[in-house]
Specification:
The complex is a heterodimer. Chain A is mainly α. Helices cover 73% and strands 2% of the residues of chain A. In chain A, a hairpin with a 6-residue loop joins strand 1 and strand 2. The longest helix of chain A is centred in the N-terminal third of the chain and has 34 residues. The two termini of chain A are 21 Å apart. In chain B, 71% of the residues lie in helices and 1% in strands. Chain B contains 15 helices and two strands. Chain B has a two-stranded antiparallel ribbon. The longest helix of chain B is centred in the first third of the chain and has 32 residues. The chains are: A mainly alpha, B mainly alpha. At the A-B interface, helix 1, helix 3, helix 4, helix 5 and helix 6 of A face helix 1, helix 2, helix 4, helix 5 and helix 6 of B.
Chain lengths: 293, 284
């Protein structure tokens, strides 16, 4: 789409666009280019000599068991976050959609965690599960579960998943609720007249019609789990025990700033960029369809 | 309501109430923690779930700093909250301002390389800070911007989503308005100020809410570019409080958590309409 009527000036558009363009070039494209360059260089420990090593950094990553493990950790983490987050929010949104009066109040009471910083979410959940005074870990001990996220990798993973899901419920809830409200009531009424139970109506009518929203949220949640949960991991588990909750972004940070392995960190950045590009493409191809729906 | 089933309606309320309770429980516990003393929390198994009587002491200690119960110094959170507020405002207003200007240029002018410029901005969507941590840090360090507001905010100000949103919105504004403005002798800047800006007010409000929360909650970037405690935003200060050695002053950590989530949560609850609009718009 184009404007028919325009203003004429040679220099004004450039002046208007300069601030954004400068920031984009200096802080986005230059560093991204640097990451590409560094990923094919090997620097010695003192930052003195740089040597072109081709794809060695990448092959080193590929053969690095801890990197592959981090990939697996991230996959498990993001699938858990997406599945748990979407199921809980869909349940709540379905209830709120049909509850009639009071829906607005429930909405307000459910959306505020969006505003909570991931690191604060991490600290809140850490507090409940901390030993020995944490109330949830105490309750679990009473039930016979010896909770210890500092030693047990499954417990550590469960902790970051819960904190991440808790923070994301509000977002999923809002989009599910909007999706549910856009489903024509006549369809559901027709099914009700035909004698379909609420349970059956949900699975044969509502859920299929909601699938664009669900798919969109699935992508958003995976992006969230990949890139926006660094602070949760850093606040609660520090990637531990061992490296069992070190998701990819945590590992880039750790290798670049703590282990000072710039070549590897840059190669990891390039891999992450490829993942973002892939996810963005998936997201946009889908958005095209969503507009028609 | 399609059919009357009182049992189902009660079940709906029940599930929603459980949901609200589970979502709110961590917040309640945080508040309770912030009203007790560190000893009360650390020495009872489990900690008491009822509010204590040390609200003022804890918040005073948290905001102004002082010695913790073990005698080691605690940083003051009040200056950190100022840093967070200033950064969040610079980031949100900055993003809106530069995106508005670039969208105006892209929609209302024809200039060489216009499409390239648009795509250059658009592609930044695919380059979040998280994937280019070290090289961006090096650029900022090279420019001497570590430990400054400029370093904390400027690299985060570019916004493909906001530019895209304003562009889409400008495209829906009828051309007659431009013609009328030109006939009245208004130049482009006058048109921007007197026509586009008022028309964009709701979009600006919605974007502001989202970007303020984004700016306030930044964690990874400040972690990299601030080494000096004077420039820590509050979310980073909290992390410092729990990364201590053996002793964690939990009541102060919880008070700091409450203080850190209060401003953005208030923005969400008070500006709920704009918040929902912003959330939906920025994802299109």
């Amino acid at each position: 789409m184009e404007k028919r009527v325009r203003f004429k000036s040679r220099w004004l558009p450039w002046l208007l666009i300069t601030p954004q363009l400068n920031i984009v070039l200096v802080f986005f494209f230059w560093p991204a280019g640097q990451a590409l360059v560094q990923s094919v260089l090997q620097e010695d420990a003192f930052g003195g000599n740089r040597e072109f090593v081709g794809l060695e950094n990448f092959s080193r990553l590929w053969n690095d068991a801890s990197y592959l493990a981090s990939f697996k950790t991230t996959a498990v983490f993001s699938i858990l976050v997406a599945v748990c987050g979407l199921s809980v929010s869909l349940l709540l949104a379905t209830m709120a959609d049909r509850v009639g009066r009071g829906a607005g109040l429930y909405k307000t009471l459910l959306i505020w965690p969006y505003a909570v910083a991931p690191v604060v979410a991490g600290v809140l959940w850490l507090f409940m599960f901390a030993s020995p005074m944490g109330v949830v870990s105490y309750a679990l001990r009473a039930l016979g579960v010896d909770w210890n996220h500092l030693l047990n990798p499954d417990h550590a993973m469960a902790l970051i998943v819960m904190a991440a899901v808790w923070k994301q419920i509000s977002y999923n809830f809002l989009f599910f609720l909007a999706g549910l409200q856009s489903i024509p009531k006549s369809l559901i009424e027709a099914a009700a007249i035909d004698g379909a139970s609420p349970w059956r109506r949900f699975w044969t009518i509502v859920f299929p019609l909601l699938s664009p929203t669900t798919f969109f949220l699935l992508v958003i949640n995976i992006v969230y789990a990949f890139f926006d949960t660094f602070a949760i991991v850093d606040a609660t588990t520090h990637g531990g025990p061992g490296k069992d909750t070190a998701i990819l972004v945590y590992k880039v940070y750790y290798d670049g700033f703590k282990a000072l392995d710039m070549g590897s960190s840059a190669a990891q950045s390039v891999v992450l960029m490829c993942i973002v590009v892939a996810l963005t493409v998936v997201q946009f191809r889908f958005v095209e369809k969503k507009v028609q729906y | 309501m399609i059919e009357r089933r009182p049992g189902l309606q009660i079940l709906r309320h029940l599930i929603l109430l459980i949901g609200v309770a589970v979502v709110a429980f961590p917040l309640y516990l945080t508040f309770v923690g912030s009203t007790q003393t560190a000893q009360q929390i650390n020495q009872s198994v489990p900690m008491s779930m009822l509010p204590g009587s040390h609200f003022w002491e804890t918040y005073q200690l948290t905001l102004l700093g002082g010695d913790n119960s073990q005698g080691s110094p605690l940083p003051a959170m009040l200056p950190m909250m100022k840093i967070s507020l200033v950064s969040a405002l610079i980031i949100s207003i900055g993003k809106i301002a530069i995106s508005l200007l670039s969208a105006f240029a892209i929609v209302y002018f024809r200039f060489p390389l216009r499409n390239l410029v648009f795509w250059t901005i658009f592609v930044t969507l695919m380059l979040p800070v998280e994937v280019r941590i070290s090289p961006t840090y090096e650029v900022v360090a090279g420019l001497g911007l570590l430990n400054s507001f400029a370093g904390l905010t400027v690299p985060l100000i570019a916004s493909a989503t906001a530019t895209f949103l304003f562009r889409q919105f400008f495209l829906t504004i009828p051309d007659e308005l431009v013609e009328a403005a030109r006939m009245d002798g208004a130049g482009p800047m006058r048109f921007l100020k007197d026509v586009l800006l008022p028309l964009s007010a709701t979009n600006i409000a919605a974007l502001f809410v989202i970007q303020f929360i984004y700016g306030w909650n930044q964690y990874l970037w400040p972690l990299l570019v601030t080494t000096n405690e004077d420039m820590y935003p509050v979310v980073l200060g909290i992390k410092r409080l729990i990364s201590g050695e053996s002793w964690t002053e939990w009541n102060v950590v919880m008070a700091a958590a409450i203080l850190a989530m209060l401003p953005p949560a208030l923005v969400v609850v008070l500006m709920q309409k704009w918040f929902v609009k912003g959330l939906v718009d920025t994802e299109k």
